[in-house]
Amino acid sequence: MRLVKLIANLGYGSRxxxxxxxxxxxxxxxxxxxxxxxxNVPHEDVLFDDEPLxxxxxMVLVMNKPLGYTCSIKDQGRLVYDLLPxxxxxxxxxxxxxxxxxxxxxxxxxxxxxxxxxxxxxxxKADVPKVYDVTLDRPMKGDEAALFASGDMxxxxxxxxxxxxxxxxxxxxxxxxxxxxxxxxxxxRMFAATGNHVTDLSRxxxxxxxxDGLEEGKWRLLDEADKARxxxx
Length: 233
Ligand code: URA
Description:
Elements: H1 3-9, H2 15-23, E1 27-29, E2 46-48, E3 51-52, E4 60-65, E5 96-97, E6 106-112, H3 115-122, E7 130-136, H4 144-149, E8 166-171, E9 174-179, H5 186-192, E10 198-206, E11 209-210, E12 219-221, H6 224-230
Parallel strand pairs: 6-10
Antiparallel strand pairs: 1-2, 2-3, 4-6, 4-12, 5-6, 7-9, 7-10, 8-9, 10-11
Helix pairs in contact: 1-2
């Protein structure tokens, strides 16, 4: 791909702006040689303003989403994209979240610009489990685990039963719930159906990938081993 298009697609500016940057000599190789619009240099050897370029398409990243941020590219209020470099919003192909977390849910959120990877993670065939830490308003009654595991729990206004889910009870008002699908507000609706109310919800794991000390509001790129871990749940 031509250098101008490659850099513009990473969100560094319009093609016109990138042409100007090239003319000014802001685009170089690692040895400091100025590159031209038609230079053919591997992505990893290109510097923009003396800094290596952002990752090429095919990137996957993990964020520890704080409460109060919406998983949307355009919405009112704080957005998860506000926690990423501004450029990432302008990338082509676009960077999207892999599934969503509610505004009032925190924890592990994946992003990618790779549609094939995204579909692989959310595909029912891959059956990637998602683990949620739940705090409840009231003590559990004791029959929740059996109901969630039954495979015939119905949520209001739905016509297909939920897949069996595993509930590990920690104490009367704390539990860890593992889901094998992702329906709208699923965790909150499951507990609401038992007469309870979720007061705090955080996702701690997707497949075999956990946050591993990633601070709230921070993100990091996944390498090939991290990506593979997602499917080793
Ligand atoms: N279930 C919910 O209720 N909310 C989330 O954000 C994720 C799962």
